[in-house]
Amino acid sequence: MLRAEILSGAPFRAVIRSAAVFVVILAVMSALAVRLIDRSMTEEIRQSVAEMEATLVDVDRSEGPAELRNQVDALSRSALGATFVHAVYDRAGRHVAGNVELRPEPGVWQRRELLPWRRPGAVPETYLLHAVETGEGLIVTGRSLGIVRAAERSALWGLILTGVVVVCAMLLFGYLMSRDSQVKLERIEATLDLVAQGKAGARIGAGEGSGQIDRISRRIDARLDALEALMAATRRTAASVAHDLRRPLARVRLSLERAQDGGAAGQAALEAAIADLDSLTAVIGTILRIARIEAGEAGDMAQQVDLAALLAELAETYAPVAEDAGQSLSVATAKGTLHGDRGMIAQMLVNLIQNAISHAGPGAAITLSAAPAPEGGVALEVTDTGRGIAPGQMGEVLEPFFRADAARSGEGSGLGLPLVKAIAARHGATLELADNGPGLRVRVTFPG
Amino acid sequence: MKILFAEDDKALASYVRAGLEEEGHVVDHFADGRDALSFCLYNPCDLAILDRMMPGMDGIALVRALRGAGSEIPVLFLTGLADVDDRVEGLQAGADDYLTKPFHFVELSARVAALTRRRTSHAEATTLSVHDLELDLLGRTARRQGQPIPLQNKEFMLLEVLMRNAGRVLTRTMLLDRVWNYSFEPNTTVLETHMSRLRAKIDKPFDRPLIHTVRNSGYSMHAPR
Questions:
Q1: Chain B contacts of A347, Cβ < 8 Å?
Q2: Which residues in chain B have their CB less than 8 angstroms from residue A281's CB?
Q3: For B190, which of A281, A298, A321 is closest by C-beta distance?
Q4: Does A330 lie in the same domain as A280?
Q5: Using CA atoms, how far apart are residues B113 and B121, in angstroms rounded to an integer?
């Protein structure tokens, strides 16, 4: 299996696409998060600066400028001196206390890059500053925004890490999925190649999975089963056609040899040869007809067939033939119409009737019926009370050239029931053979 | 009779032509459908025998063209397209009869005789008679020597076809075609059964038979000779 094939597989490409979308969404969300953090933390810092300033103004007002200077110096020296900056200027504008020297415009919030006082080696940080004028002079208060930058940085790192982990997991998952379907697709490909090479028994053998590929694989296997059966049937038919045509051909050859001698015997031999060739022509005609019907090429399927009239006509034609064979033929019920090719349906019934007459034996009663089927549609039945067919042979009699009685193989072409089967299939009808106790019951159920 | 014969298989054509000429017909043979059509449109013929698959123009188109031009010439298809559907198609196109290859020459000869006779036959007659046998087509009754003979429907139809073609040979397949139409293929025992029943009623009780078996061909009805 080639890596390139896995990477170009549909599941992997789908994962790549969703990973790209994920990265874009993550980037947008990160930018939003940073802005949110910046805004809310800066606001908090602004409030703490305002509170600190209010405290200092309060000290100035209630305890005087000297105390203010003390307090500011103390603050500047304390731990808070790292984050807070202070400056106090007197009325003359002199710097009198604090850890920073600058005079921003009073009453306006501003940001400045500052090196914190008394902290050698420190890097400049951004400070948020505010100044207020008192009776004594100017009080400046400010606080570092470094904490905001740190919070933003760690949030950003967290999001980037999440993104990297998720994208890696997605790619891995996509790769595995793609490899899985690639394995299955290659199995399908290999199976179809085998079938194309003539190994009709090859199957994909997909499991019980409910994935699309598993479902398709099971469908393909089912179709291959049908195809194999069809190929086997076709081979059998071709073999039996060849076998069955050889015997009359051999007879024709023998007759023609005899005819070479001339005379009355020769004349009779020629006539026999012509009769054999005629029956061969008829057999080939029937084979071609079955093939055309099975290919769906024959017939005008839109005709309305009046079953009462058809059964009456057939009974009129075949009752005398049955009587001559010592049998009786009658119509039980004849109701309904069906859509299909009248000629084909007549031919089907003719074949079933002729089959009954030649196989049921003397004394049998043959019955025709057409009636609505309980499961819907119309059922045509030809039943007899003759010898019937052994249960094991019910399927075989529908195969071309099968003859139940091998000793009487001269009778019939062996194609009557296969033609019935082809006509029933062409009409979407089901053909059932059953024991009539005694005799044979053939039932053809047409869909409604 | 003047017969137009269109067939592109040379061996078959010369065989059929020789056979028809032996029977006294004049045969004009063409191997191309268009040539046959133009000849037939300008030279009156008594019968056209057409192959279905020919170079130039196929038989179906030829018949349609002839019928479209108002020609009522009887047409017999002689073709390898043997399926029931092909026959129905041929007859619907306007042909009068349909014979499939391979065939016996007697079959062709009998059909040629039946087709060329058809226009002069008593198509409008309501009774048919041969010797002392009478058939009333409206009352659907048969009488011989004045004696009524009850007939089954198929027996009546069989007798009608035989009497309409009295004096001519009708082959088994012609009788099957006429009585049981073209839509399915009953086997020949059907015809033999009905024929023997008809003979038992028409001929057996009387001194001279009217229905005669013609060896290797079929049946013929005629007055005693």
A1: 84, 183-185
A2: 102
A3: A321
A4: no
A5: 12
CB contact under 8 A, A350 and B85: no
Let me know if residue A206 belongs to a domain.
Answer: no
Q: Which residues pair with A28 in a beta bridge?
A: none
Inter-residue contact A331 to A311 (CB < 8 Å): yes
Residues of B in contact with A298 (CB under 8 A): 83-85
| Domain finish residue from A294, A318, A339 | A294
Sketch out chain B's domains with CATH numbers. Answer: 2-118 (3.40.50.2300), 127-221 (1.10.10.10)
Q: Is the dihedral of CA B78, B83, B87, B92 positive or negative?
A: negative
Residue A376 lies in a domain: yes
Residue A155: CB atoms within 10 Å: 15
State how far residue B25 is from chain A, nearest Cα, in angstroms. 26
Question: Domain with A250 in it: what CATH number?
Answer: 1.10.287
A115: domain range?
Answer: 10-150
pLDDT mean by block of 10 residues, chain A; 448 residues: 78 89 92 92 92 90 87 82 83 84 86 71 82 85 88 90 92 89 89 88 82 87 88 81 83 90 86 87 86 83 90 93 94 90 91 90 94 90 89 76 53 79 92 89 91
Task: Work out how many CB contacts closer than 8 A connect A with B.
Answer: 52
Distances (CA, A) of B120 to A36, A233, B115, B130, B165: 111, 54, 10, 17, 11
Q: Which of B82, B84, B186 sits opposite A343 (nearest CB)?
A: B84
Whether residues A325 and A432 share a domain: the answer is yes
